[in-house]
Amino acid sequence: MDTVVLEWEYSPPDYFDSPIKIETQDKCNIEIDNGKAVVKIDSVVFDANPLMSDALNHVLKARFIGAQLVRHKKFTLSSPAKTIVHPDGCRDYFLQVEPTRVTVKVTGNQQIFRDGKVVPDPKLDEISFTLRIHKHPNDKVLAKMLRGYSDAVDEPDHELVHLYEIRDAISKKFSDDKKARSALKISYDDWSDLGKLCNEDPLLEGRHHGKHENLHNATNAELSKARKIAKDMIDAYLSYLETSP
Question: Is residue 111 part of a domain?
Fold first, then answer.
C-alpha cells in the first residue's frame, strides 16, 4: 500500500529544545526535529481526505506560533512537500497546500516540580497556545493579532509599531476601547501602558517619531513589558473566543 509523506523545513533547526510529536485525530504523527517536520499517512486515509495537507500545515504553524509567543524568536516554515512512496520503493514528488480542519493533541509533561513546588514550564505554555490557536483557524481578528506579534519578532526596529497592532485589532473588533477592555477583562493600566510605550514615549521602535526631537532605543525592561501586555491581550482574546456562543 502507498504511503503519503508530507515534509516541511523550518529554521533555525534548533527552534525547539527537543524533538516534538503532534498526534492528530486520524492517528497521524507529525514529528518535528532538527529543521524538519515529517508526517507519514496511509494513502487510503489521505485519499479519503484530500484536503488534509493544509489542515496539517495549520496544525504545525500553530505549534510554531505557540512557541513564538513564549520564546519571542524568529522562525521560517516552508509549505509541505508531498511524496508518495510506493511499496517497491519508488517515489512520486508533489507540492500541495489545500484547506480543511483536523483535531490535534500535543503530548508533553503536565507539571514540573522543584523543591516541592510546581514550576512554570515554558513548553506547557507553548502547548496551551498551540491548542487554543488551532481551535480558531478562521478568526480574522486573531489572525491579525498573531501576525502583529510575529511581525514584531521579525522586525525589531519597529517592534512597538507591530505590538500596537494587537491592541488596535481588538479595539476595532469591539468598536471602542472601553468595550474591548470590558469584554476581554483587560485592565485600564495595561491598556494605557501599551499605548504609552507604543505611541507616546520617545522610542525609536515606536509609532510617532515626529512627536519627539530626541529618540532613544527602548530598554529591555520596556520591551519586555510591551511584549507581556501584548501576549496577555492575545491570551484574553483567546479566552473570549472560548467562552463566546
Answer: no
Q: Domain tally for the chain?
A: 2
Cell numbers that stand for 108 in this block: 508533553
Query: Quick check: is 170 in a domain?
Result: yes
Helices (H) then strands (E): counts for the chain: 8, 10
Which residue range is the domain that position 26 belongs to? 3-106
Q: What Å distances lie between residue 54 and 13, 22, 23, 98, 244, CA to CA?
A: 22, 15, 16, 5, 26
Structural domain contains residue 8: yes
Residue 124: how many CB atoms within 10 A of its CB?
Answer: 16
CA angle 69, 195, 202 (to 5 degrees): 105
Average per-residue pLDDT in the chain? 85
In this predicted structure, which of 21-30, 37-46, 94-103, 165-174 has the lowest mean pLDDT?
Answer: 94-103
pTM of the model: 0.79
112 inside domain:
no
86 close to 2: Cβ distance less than 8 angstroms: yes
The reply to whether 145 and 222 lie within a common domain is: yes
